[in-house]
Write a structure and sequence with these properties.
Its main location: membrane. This protein is an all-alpha fold. It is 82% helix and 0% strand. It starts with a helix and ends with a helix.
Amino acid sequence: MNTSTLLLLLIMLLGILGRSNIIAAAAAALLLLEFASLERFFPLLERRALEVGLIFLVVSVLIPFTYGRVAPVEILRSFTSTTGLIAILSGLLATLLNYQGLELLKRYPHMMVGMIIGSIIGVAFFGGIPVGPLMAGGIAALLVYLVEYLR
C-alpha cells in the first residue's frame, strides 16, 4: 500500500470520525478509482471536478429563484439596502479570496491536509459546514500574506 493510499484512508477515517460526510465521500471516491485502476481519470478530475462541483453548488443556491421564492423587489433591494450592499461586497470579497486560495493550493498542495483536518475539527467540535477547500485556502492565503508582510 503506497503513501497516497494511506493518506486517503486516513482522510476518509477522519472524515467519518469527524462527521464530515463530504470529506469522507471524496476520499472514498478517490480510493475506489485507485483500487479499480482508474488513475487515468485523476488528471481529468484535477482539471474539471472543481468546476463541476461549483456548478452544482451554484445550482443549489439558485433553486429559490426557480420556485419564485425571491421576489423581484427583494432583488432590487439587494442593490439599494445596506444589507444588500454588504452581501454584494461579501460576494466580491469571497470570490477574490477563493481565487487566492486556489493559487495558494497550486503552490503549496501540502497545505490541503491541514485544511482538511481544520475542516473536520470545525465540523466535529464547532458545528461548522465544510463548504470547500477554496475558502479555507483563501483565508490561509490571506493569513500567509499577512504573516509575510509582518515579518
